[in-house]
Structure to design on (231 residues):
């Protein structure tokens, strides 16, 4: 019997494709013991606004070389109020604004030790609301010291996985042979953006899943159906 492992850095309010990847795995691993990247979406996401995509970013305490789990948000700057105001001003006319905004506000206003705690609080909550019954693990809990492809393979082995469900970006540096030799089948996650009713002008797919929740609620069955039918 197959046991599918998916792995990704814990990002802030990720897009729908992130949640689809979670839904297709038996165990989803938050890759929190790799280096924080300003190019990674660890502390920002995109919202859809009347002026196009808007990058919603929070400030962090971070020095070069820090792992993601060593980075914390600069709460003393009061960035949370700005995020609440920005989301409210752009989504107050959305059909599901009241419920989704209150959920977001409740989670945001908790205190978190680091950005992993903050980001995963949102991801775990939304996954549960959408009925995704995947097991979650943090890579730092596994105490694996290897890097890149070797680290991924070691994580899969540690969790008893025989299928690795990878993002397509990794095609640039990993091969099927590397996984086959370790008894692991390599599969790639292919998510086709689903068009749904949005506020403001033409459809935009590369925005936070929060946009979908605001406009369509937490109905994930629609997303799964569209993927199965081939959008």
């Amino acid at each position: 019997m197959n046991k599918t492992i998916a792995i990704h850095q814990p990002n802030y309010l990720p897009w729908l494709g992130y949640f689809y990847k979670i839904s297709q795995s038996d165990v989803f691993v938050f890759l929190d013991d790799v280096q924080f990247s300003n190019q990674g979406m660890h502390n920002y996401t995109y919202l859809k606004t009347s002026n196009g995509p808007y990058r919603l970013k929070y400030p962090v305490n971070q020095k070069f070389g820090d792992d993601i789990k060593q980075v914390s948000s600069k709460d003393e700057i009061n960035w949370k109020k700005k995020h609440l105001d920005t989301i409210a001003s752009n989504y107050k006319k959305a059909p599901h604004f009241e419920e989704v905004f209150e959920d977001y506000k409740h989670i945001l206003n908790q205190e978190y030790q680091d950005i992993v705690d903050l980001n995963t609080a949102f991801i775990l909550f939304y996954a549960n609301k959408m009925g995704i019954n995947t097991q979650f693990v943090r890579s730092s809990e596994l105490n694996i010291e290897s890097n890149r492809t070797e680290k991924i393979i070691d994580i899969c082995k540690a969790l008893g996985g025989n299928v690795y469900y990878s993002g397509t970006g990794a095609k640039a540096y990993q091969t099927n042979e590397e996984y086959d030799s370790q008894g692991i089948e390599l599969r790639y996650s292919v998510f086709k953006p689903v068009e749904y009713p949005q506020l403001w002008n033409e459809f935009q797919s590369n925005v936070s899943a929060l946009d979908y929740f605001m406009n369509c609620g937490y109905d994930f069955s629609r997303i799964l159906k569209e993927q199965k039918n081939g959008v």
About this structure: Residues 87 and 180 are 45 Å apart (CA to CA). The mean pLDDT is 95. The first strand starts at residue 4 and ends at 8. The chain has one domain: 4-229.
